[in-house]
């Protein structure tokens, strides 16, 4: 009897795996039909590809992207001991697109000003916003921990602000925001909003916490909103994992700003990302509406790292919203959703 139970248990597990793989293949072709690759492995010599692009619309009509180019895909650096020195090693890469999404120029940034003089330092997860006539970048600063000949990883991640200067192809570290509470050792996914010459830092989604810049010279922020959220928002997908910010906020209409949030389904031993749109009220900064279904998921994502489709930034072009994503931590892609379609997806909270 036990042998029969084990047999059918293995048969059931194999069947589930076959169904998942078949579904993924179908979703892959569907996904490829609705999104376009901007850059991938080999672009500008980065064998590990590029991932997680920040994006902003410039006054000259160009779309400015800032992404991480990696010499070796980080998973290969972890798995293959001879590659451990290449873990998260690479450069910020600037890509300028025209209004038709054609690449006008691209280059890695080699001039890093004010950054710590540390070889084992990763700079990634770039988001872009304009504030006081400058192009600001909110991103992660990660000190890499290495065991010689064995492994590489990290247990610390700091959120910082830098200024991008396209003229001299430089990124200058402005510093780490000073909060009115102690942040965790590993911080990710802070996002920003510039409104009426004020700068707001969105720290966490649940609890919903927002801070306002009160001293520019020291990058000091003070909490202006700190409250629990609607039960629908604390666990949107029902996965029991944290809901986090994905994109800096942009204008949606006269009443709302648009942001994207994400949650990870880790129930099958992998990380499957889901993204939803959220509308934030311009009067009180509170979330008012959420899309009734995910805008994007990791099903069908490109690259060897399955389940990873990370929406890093969004811009508006005419009446379309253009979402820029990192897929498999090795491809930069874009996808378009019209405002008319989004208007039909909102569910009030």
Provide a compact summary of the structure.
The protein is mainly beta. It has helices spanning 2-34, 74-79, 231-234, 339-343, and strands spanning 35-39, 50-57, 63-70, 90-97, 103-108, 111-113, 121-131, 134-143, 145-147, 151-153, 158-165, 170-175, 191-195, 198-204, 208-215, 220-227, 243-245, 250-251, 256-265, 272-281, 287-291, 296-297, 309-317, 320-327, 331-338, 346-348. Strands 17, 18, 19, 20, 21, 22 and 26 form a seven-stranded antiparallel beta sheet that branches. Strands 6-12-11-8-7 form a five-stranded mixed beta sheet, with no helix packed on it. It has a four-stranded antiparallel beta sheet with strand order 1-25-24-23.
CATH top level label: Mainly Beta
CATH architecture: 5 Propeller
The major pleated sheet works out as: 7 strands, antiparallel
Tally the helices.
Answer: 4
Approximate strand percentage: over 45%
Number of domains: 1
Helix/strand-derived category reads mainly beta
Q: What's the pLDDT, averaged over the residues?
A: 91
Unreliable sequence segments: none
Estimated helix fraction: 10-25%
What is the end-to-end distance?
52 Å
Cα gyration radius (Å):
21 Å
According to CATH, what is the topology?
Tachylectin-2, Chain A
Q: Which of globular, elongated, flat, extended, rod-shaped describes the shape?
A: globular
Give a count of the beta strands, DSSP E runs of length 2 or more. 26
């Amino acid at each position: 009897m036990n042998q029969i139970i084990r047999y059918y248990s293995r048969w059931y597990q194999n069947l589930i795996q076959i169904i998942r793989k078949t579904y993924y293949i179908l979703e892959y072709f569907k996904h490829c039909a609705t999104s376009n690759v901007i850059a991938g492995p080999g672009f500008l010599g980065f064998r590990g590809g590029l991932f997680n692009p920040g994006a902003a619309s410039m006054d000259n009509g160009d779309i400015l992207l800032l992404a991480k180019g990696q010499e070796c895909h980080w998973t290969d650096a972890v798995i293959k001991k001879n590659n451990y020195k290449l873990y998260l090693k690479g450069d910020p890469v600037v890509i300028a697109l025209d209004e038709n999404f054609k690449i006008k120029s691209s280059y890695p940034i080699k001039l890093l000003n004010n950054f710590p003089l540390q070889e084992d330092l990763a700079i990634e997860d770039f988001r872009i916003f304009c504030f006081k006539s400058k192009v600001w970048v909110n991103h992660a600063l990660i000190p890499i921990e290495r065991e010689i000949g064995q492994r590489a990883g990290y247990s610390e991640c700091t959120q910082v602000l830098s200024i991008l200067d396209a003229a001299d192809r430089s990124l200058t570290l402005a510093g780490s925001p000073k909060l009115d509470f102690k942040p965790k050792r590993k911080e990710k996914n802070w996002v920003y909003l510039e409104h009426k010459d004020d700068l707001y830092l969105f720290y966490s989604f649940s609890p919903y916490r927002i801070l306002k810049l009160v001293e520019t010279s020291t990058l000091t922020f003070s909490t202006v909103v700190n409250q629990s959220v609607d039960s629908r928002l604390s666990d949107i997908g029902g996965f029991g994992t944290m809901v986090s910010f994905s994109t800096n906020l942009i204008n949606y209409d006269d009443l709302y700003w648009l942001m994207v949030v994400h949650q990870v389904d880790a129930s099958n031993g992998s990380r499957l990302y889901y993204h939803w749109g959220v509308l934030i009220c311009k009067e009180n900064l509170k979330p008012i509406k959420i899309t009734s279904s995910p805008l994007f998921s990791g099903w069908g994502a490109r690259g060897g790292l399955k389940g990873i489709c990370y929406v890093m930034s969004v811009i508006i072009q005419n009446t379309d919203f253009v979402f820029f994503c990192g897929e498999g931590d090795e491809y930069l892609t874009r996808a378009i959703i019209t405002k008319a379609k989004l208007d039909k997806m909102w569910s009030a909270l």
